[in-house]
Q: What sequence folds into this?
C-alpha cells in the first residue's frame, strides 16, 4: 500500500499530530515493520512498541531546529524501527537476523537520533525529580510566559520569580551534568 | 565543579533567543570554545529546553489513539480471510449444536464479562484536590485517571522515573489503568512489583487475578483468587464472590 500523502505532508501531519496522517502511517508502515520483526524473533506487541518508539523519535527529530529529511520518510521510519529492534536483540544477545527490511542504511545518522532520544530521557528524568513548584515554573517559562506573569501566578515579585527560575534551572542543569548517563550519551 | 552563575543563564537565554549583538555573540562563541564546562552547560540548557518543550507526551497520546482507531476498524476486516470464514462456519455449527445445551443448563459467564462486572478502578491517591497544586506528570496522570482517560494517565505516569518515591503506587495504578483499557498483558507486567506494604500487595494480587481472568487464564485467576481468600484480607469477600461466579465455590 502506498501512502496517499507526500513526505512533506507526512512531516507536517506528524508535527501537528494530525489523526488522519497518524492513522495512515500506522496502516501502511506498521505491517512492514511487524513482518520484519516477526521474522526476527519478535511478537506483535513488541512490533507495536517499536513502531510507537520509532514514531516518537521521528516526531522529536522533526522538532529539531535544524531538521532536514535526508532520506524518504518511509526509509527513515523503517530505519529507526529496525535499529531499535536490533538494539533490543543485541541486549538479549540474539544475532542471527533476516536483513530484508526495505530502507537505506542510515547508520550514523540514526545512531545520533537514538542517542539524542536517550539524552532527552535523561533530561526528562531529572525534570520529573525537581520539586513540583520548580517543574511548574520551568513549564511556564518554556511556554513563553514573562517573569511578570510567573510572578503573578506565584503571588510574588518579579525579582523573586527570577531568582526561583534561576535556582530551578541551575538544579536541573547541575543534576544532568552530574549524571554519568549524560556523559556516556554525549560522546 | 564551578557552580553556575545567574549571568551564565542570562547569557544562554539571550544567545538562544538571538538577542546578542554581533560583538557579544563573537565573545560568547570564543568563551564556548575555550571553556568546556560552559560549553557543556550551554548544550544541556539548549537540549533540555527542546526536550521539555517538544510535546512528546501529547504526540504519544495522539499516536496511541490513532493506532487504536485503526485496530478497531481492522477487526471486522480480518473475518474476510477465507480460513477465518471456514473457522467461523465451523464455530457457527458448533454454536448452533450447542444451543440446546445452553438452554437447558445455567450459563457460566465468560471470563471477560466476569472481569468487567468485578472490576472497578479505585480513586487514585495522587490527586490533590483544591488549593494551588502545581501540575506535574503525577498530577497530570491523576487528573486523566479520575476522568477515565486511562491512556493519557498511562502516558503521563510511564514517564516518571523508576526510582520515583511513589513508584510502587504508580505501578499499581498503571496496572489498573491497563486493565481499564483491556490490556491484561501490560496490566500484569505493571502489577508484578515487589512491595513491603500489605495494602498495596493485596490490591496488586486482586488486580493481577482480574488481569489473568481478562486474558482468559481461568486456572491462573482461580489460583490467584484462592490465594487471596486464604490470606483473609480486605479483598477476601470480593475474591469469594468472583470465585463463586466462576462456578468454583
A:
Amino acid at each position: 500500500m502506498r501512502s496517499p500523502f507526500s513526505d512533506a505532508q507526512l512531516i507536517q501531519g506528524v508535527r501537528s499530530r494530525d489523526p488522519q496522517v497518524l492513522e495512515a502511517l500506522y496502516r501502511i508502515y506498521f505491517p512492514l515493520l511487524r513482518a520484519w520483526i516477526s521474522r526476527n524473533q519478535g511478537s506483535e506487541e513488541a512490533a507495536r512498541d517499536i513502531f510507537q518508539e520509532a514514531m516518537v523519535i521521528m516526531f522529536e527529530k522533526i522538532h529539531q531546529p535544524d531538521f532536514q529529511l535526508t532520506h524518504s520518510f518511509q526509509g527513515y521510519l523503517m530505519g529507526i524501527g529496525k535499529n531499535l529492534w536490533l538494539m533490543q536483540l543485541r541486549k538479549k544477545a540474539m544475532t542471527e537476523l533476516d536483513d530484508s527490511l526495505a530502507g537505506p542504511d542510515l547508520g550514523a545518522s540514526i545512531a545520533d537520533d537514538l542517542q539524542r532520544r536517550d539524552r532527552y530521557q535523561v533530561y526528562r528524568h531529572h525534570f520529573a525529580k525537581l520539586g513540583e513548584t520548580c517543574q511548574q515554573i520551568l513549564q511556564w517559562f518554556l511556554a513563553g510566559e514573562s517573569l511578570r506573569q510567573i510572578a503573578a501566578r506565584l503571588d510574588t515579585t518579579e525579582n523573586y520569580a527570577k531568582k526561583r527560575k534561576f535556582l530551578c534551572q541551575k538544579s536541573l542543569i547541575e543534576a544532568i551534568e552530574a549524571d554519568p548517563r549524560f556523559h556516556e550519551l554525549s560522546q | 565543579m564551578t557552580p553556575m552563575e545567574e549571568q551564565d543563564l542570562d547569557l544562554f537565554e539571550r544567545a538562544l533567543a538571538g538577542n546578542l549583538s554581533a560583538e557579544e555573540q563573537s565573545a560568547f562563541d570564543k568563551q564556548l570554545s575555550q571553556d568546556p564546562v560552559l560549553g557543556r552547560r550551554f548544550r544541556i540548557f539548549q537540549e533540555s529546553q527542546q526536550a521539555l518543550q517538544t510535546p512528546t507526551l501529547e504526540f504519544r497520546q495522539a499516536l496511541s489513539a490513532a493506532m487504536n482507531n485503526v485496530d478497531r476498524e481492522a477487526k471486522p476486516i480480518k473475518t474476510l480471510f477465507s480460513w477465518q470464514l471456514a473457522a467461523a462456519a465451523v464455530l457457527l455449527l458448533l454454536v448452533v449444536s450447542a444451543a440446546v445445551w445452553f438452554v437447558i443448563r445455567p450459563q457460566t459467564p465468560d471470563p471477560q464479562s466476569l472481569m468487567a462486572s468485578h472490576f472497578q478502578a479505585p480513586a487514585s491517591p495522587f490527586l490533590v484536590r483544591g488549593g494551588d497544586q502545581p501540575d506535574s506528570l503525577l498530577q497530570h496522570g491523576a487528573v486523566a485517571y479520575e476522568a477515565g482517560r486511562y491512556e493519557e494517565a498511562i502516558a503521563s505516569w510511564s514517564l516518571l522515573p523508576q526510582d520515583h518515591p511513589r513508584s510502587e503506587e504508580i505501578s499499581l495504578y498503571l496496572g489498573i489503568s491497563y486493565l481499564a483499557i483491556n490490556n491484561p498483558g501490560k496490566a500484569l507486567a505493571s502489577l508484578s512489583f515487589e512491595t513491603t506494604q500489605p495494602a498495596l500487595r493485596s490490591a496488586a494480587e486482586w488486580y493481577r487475578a482480574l488481569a489473568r481472568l481478562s486474558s482468559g487464564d481461568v486456572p491462573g485467576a482461580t489460583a490467584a483468587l484462592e490465594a487471596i481468600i486464604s490470606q483473609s484480607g480486605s479483598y477476601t469477600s470480593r475474591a469469594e464472590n468472583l470465585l463463586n461466579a466462576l462456578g468454583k465455590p
